Amino acid sequence: MRVVIAEDSVLLREGLTRLLTDRGHDVVAGVGDAEALIKVIAELADEGALPDVVVADVRMPPTHTDEGVRAAIRLRRDHPDLGVLVLSQYVEEQYATELLAGSTKGIGYLLKDRVAEVREFVDAVVRVAGGGTALDPEVVAQLLGRSRKQDVLANLTPREREVLGLMAEGRTNSAVARQLVVSDGAVEKHVSNIFLKLGLAQSDGDHRRVLAVLTYLNS
């Protein structure tokens, strides 16, 4: 897996680089601001060497507001097959919503605290690089919370809401089953009920289910 890291904290950038390279991944570039990120991706694209995924901070120089997420959205527009995983200190629903407004293929939004959970963080980067979705549980909770205020999920049982939240994080049925300590068959039944109640057509692939759920939550 080839990765570009955009993080203005040198310490965190070097830490992420070490974390990924120690696990056999190739960090092809590390930059400290959004402008440099746009430039290095353009150069790599011109060379026919686009990375599999970009890991970028939401807030970057010069204003430390939304430069990182703006760069991520632009990169997704210019390179639809490029995976983008953004890191944020806090859940910023506006940024998450904007990032997820288009296709959620190869998209991730994690809180920086998750980096300390090394295995889960690396798994998330790999999943996004492969075209999957990786959403922080706190991001999912806020999206679900907003939807509940609109009575969107009123017909779901508490367990179905729990399953939906785990699905939106990008987890497979088997991963959901392990998390909830239930059988795969039980999860499949919950998933079927969720799509039936939400009026969403069920599809075969986990990513397509996640895409449908997120599209619904952002409608």
From TrEMBL:
PANTHER family of this UniProt entry?
A: TRANSCRIPTIONAL REGULATORY PROTEIN NARL-RELATED (PTHR43214:SF24), TWO-COMPONENT RESPONSE REGULATOR (PTHR43214)
Bilayer-spanning residue ranges: none
State the InterPro entries in the record.
CheY-like_superfamily, NreC/VraR/RcsB-like_REC, Sig_transdc_resp-reg_C-effctor, Sig_transdc_resp-reg_receiver, Tscrpt_reg_LuxR_C, WalR-like
Q: What terms describe the molecular function in GO for this protein?
A: DNA binding
Q: What range(s) does the HTH luxR-type domain occupy?
A: 149-219
Q: Which Gene3D superfamilies match?
A: 3.40.50.2300
**Swiss-Prot/TrEMBL keywords:** DNA-binding, Phosphoprotein, Transcription, Transcription regulation
Q: Which CDD domains match?
A: LuxR_C_like, REC_NarL-like
Specify the species: Streptomyces chattanoogensis
The cross-references to SUPFAM superfamilies, in alphabetical order and at most eight, read: C-terminal effector domain of the bipartite response regulators, CheY-like
Q: Per the database record, which ranges form the Response regulatory domain?
A: 2-127
- Among its keywords, does the record have DNA-binding? yes
User: Where, per the database record, does this protein carry 4-aspartylphosphate?
Assistant: D57
- Protein's name in the database: LuxR family transcriptional regulator
Lineage: superkingdom: Bacteria
- Name any Gene Ontology BP term: phosphorelay signal transduction system
Give a Pfam family name.
Answer: Response_reg
